[in-house]
């Protein structure tokens, strides 16, 4: 069993520091201002505008990204274990993405997605079927032997793949969390069905890894934990399947329980807000301008 020497990972450290600065600025976007604020004023306003719950989500989301891209997991994923690479991707897609989406105040998301082109692109890409397809293709391609070999050859390529995974995961989680304003949101039964499909399709190739009897990935030394290549592949497939089922089905159960609670309290489990209505009116006005 080999030992991993400590590495600083300056790109990860720099990304974390930049995120700590960018988060309050993003949160300040939805704040109504009587006059333009300075950069320091926007920073302070953003911190005040975000709730304690949203700050916790940001902390956990950033922590998840840090763990996935820092020592020792990142080092094992580079050369030693396929299992570590899969764990990286699961942390990014199943933890970091939903945490970060819930860290931004709804009013800030409304303001940030107001530009017409961005709104149209997001509304199109987050359609349930297309979001599942994008997430599935991205997740599957990221774990092909050719892509893994391409990724581990350069730290910049690795970060590029991780950004693609994060972007695809954000698109996949938007219909579940219903953070994008608009009336056309998934209902509770729709979200449950969507989560069921998500728990199955992206991890279907994991079955191949579980039952593989020959080495599919030749880029790893398998020195970190003493695993042989075939066992590494099988554990990787099992981890992908179990983690995805646990997270997506766990979220589905939480959604179902919350819907039952809302109905018992006489509340609508699928409410429509003024932001949703206004966004649809804006979209209609842009599609059918008055002559």
What does this structure look like?
- Helix content is 71%, strand content 0%.
- The protein has 291 residues and is mainly α.
- It has one domain.
- Helix 1 crosses helix 2, helix 4 crosses helix 5 and helix 5 packs across helix 10.
- The N and C termini lie far apart (74 Å).
- The mean pLDDT is 91.
Measure the end-to-end span.
74 Å
Q: Give the domain tally.
A: 1
- What is the helix content? over 70%
Describe the sheet with the most strands: none
Mean pLDDT: 91
**Secondary structural class:** mainly alpha
Count of helical segments?
14
Shape: globular
Q: Per DSSP, what share of the residues sits in E-state strands of 2 or more residues?
A: under 5%
What are the secondary-structure elements, in order, as H or E?
HHHHHHHHHHHHHH
Count of DSSP strands: 0
Radius of gyration: 21 Å
| Low-pLDDT residue spans | none
What are the salient characteristics of this protein?
single chain; 291 residues; mainly alpha
Summarize the structure.
The chain contains 14 helices and no strands.
List the helices and strands and how they pair.
Layout: H1 10-27, H2 39-49, H3 52-68, H4 73-79, H5 82-103, H6 106-112, H7 116-125, H8 128-142, H9 145-151, H10 155-177, H11 188-200, H12 206-211, H13 229-264, H14 274-287
Helix pairs in contact: 1-2, 3-5, 4-5, 5-10, 5-13, 8-10, 11-13
């Amino acid at each position: 069993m080999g030992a991993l020497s400590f590495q600083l990972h300056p790109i990860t450290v720099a990304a974390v520091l930049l995120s700590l600065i960018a988060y309050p600025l993003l949160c300040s976007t939805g704040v109504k201002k009587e006059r333009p604020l300075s950069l320091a004023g926007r920073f302070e306003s953003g911190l005040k505008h975000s709730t304690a719950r949203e700050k916790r989500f940001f902390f956990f989301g950033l922590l998840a990204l840090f763990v996935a891209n820092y020592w020792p997991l990142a080092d094992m994923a580079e050369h030693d274990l396929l299992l570590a690479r899969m764990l990286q991707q699961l942390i990014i897609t199943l933890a970091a993405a939903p945490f970060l989406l819930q860290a931004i105040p709804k009013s800030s998301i409304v303001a940030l997605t107001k530009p017409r082109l961005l709104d149209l692109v997001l509304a199109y890409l987050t359609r349930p079927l297309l979001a599942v397809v994008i997430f599935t293709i991205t997740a599957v391609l990221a774990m092909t032997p050719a892509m893994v070999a391409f990724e581990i050859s350069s730290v910049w390529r690795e970060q590029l793949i991780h950004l693609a995974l994060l972007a695809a995961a954000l698109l996949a989680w938007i219909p579940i969390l219903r953070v994008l304003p608009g009336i056309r949101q998934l209902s509770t039964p729709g979200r449950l069905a969507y989560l069921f499909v998500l728990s199955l399709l992206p991890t279907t190739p994991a079955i191949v890894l579980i039952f593989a009897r020959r080495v599919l990935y030749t880029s790893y030394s398998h020195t970190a934990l003493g695993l042989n290549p075939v066992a590494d592949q099988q554990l990787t497939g099992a981890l992908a399947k179990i983690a995805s089922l646990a997270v997506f089905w766990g979220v589905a159960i939480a959604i179902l329980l919350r819907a039952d609670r809302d109905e018992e309290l006489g509340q609508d489990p699928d409410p429509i807000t003024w932001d949703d209505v206004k966004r649809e009116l804006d979209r209609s006005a842009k599609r059918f301008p008055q002559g």
